[in-house]
Fold this sequence. Notes:
Number of domains: 2
Radius of gyration: 23 Å
Order of helices and strands: EHHHHEEEHEEEHEEEEHHEEEHHE
Amino acid sequence: MKPATDRMRAAQLGVNKTWLEPIVLVKHILAGHVDSDTLWIHATISDRKRARRSTMRPSGKNRAARGDTAASMRWASNAPSHWPVLVTPPLPFPHDPVHPINRIFFAARLSEALPKGEGGMKLAAVAQTRLTPDGVLEVPYEVLDGDRHVCVFVYGDAGTEAAEQFWGAAELLAKLGEPEPVYFAPAPLSRAAPRPQLRAWGADLLGTHDAEAPTASFAIWWATSPRDRFSGSAVAGYIGRAYEALAGIQTYVLAAILRSLGLVEEHTGRVALPEDGIAVAVTGPESRVLVLTASSETGIRFHFDPETLPVRYRDAFWKLFAEYVEGWRKSTQQEGLRLDPLADAGPLSWWRHTEAAIRQMEERGEHVQRLGVSRL
């Protein structure tokens, strides 16, 4: 297969659609090129069409004239004692905590404050994600504290819903072996039943990998021990579900993925799977490097590096991708869209033949080490 040569215009791992427009500003913030005061000029320009005059932050002079005493707020937090106390002006859009401008504004203030703490902390990343079998956890910020990457969440209020979301995120991150996350809120969050806010898998979670192409062998599945069998495994079921759901809608799904990667025009509705096949390095959730392949014979597949990728990530990815394409199939049926012709030798046929062949090999006692190996 030949690697794709086009590159996405402005995508970055874990950056969803709401972050694409202001992502250039975020890069400048992380590099220390934009302070939070200068940010107001850029924020006003980039968000002029959506901003309403009544919700824009007034200047210092106008605040004084209007008797606005909320010139700053001290954020409550569970941050360790060596982190700085964070005091900022009110959020630009206080009634919309997840507004992109709020996120950028907070990133700038946090980036400025962190070096004032002990240990040389810094803002390391924004708009990151964590993959779980139940969905994708969005992490607004990551702070480098010594040698630890600490997830940071910001809430516009300190109510029950915010507390449930935070402690749910903390529980998930603990299962992944990560440090306890930090929150910032107008008031301390109380303990609450953990209910993490997860999103579904979507093509917007993929971005092109603009660094040097990986040289490792990637696979859609691999054994982790001599006793590990593919047949009958949970991940075999997920992959099978994906192939079944993709039958007849592969051109729609491939177009959606390539649109998100910036490899086709935004108005492209369908893309035929190439006979020769394509292979492109992409980034997925958690900044992981994957290989996407597509061909008329084997269909749409994702390949992972067995040497560096946790098995829990591979299995969760296939599960969520299967749910994604099942949703696509339901939508196409409801809207009455024209399906792809089902060729006798198409991807679903290839998958059923491959699955049957592996089952026969394992029944004979043969050990299958890797499946669907791909190199760029």
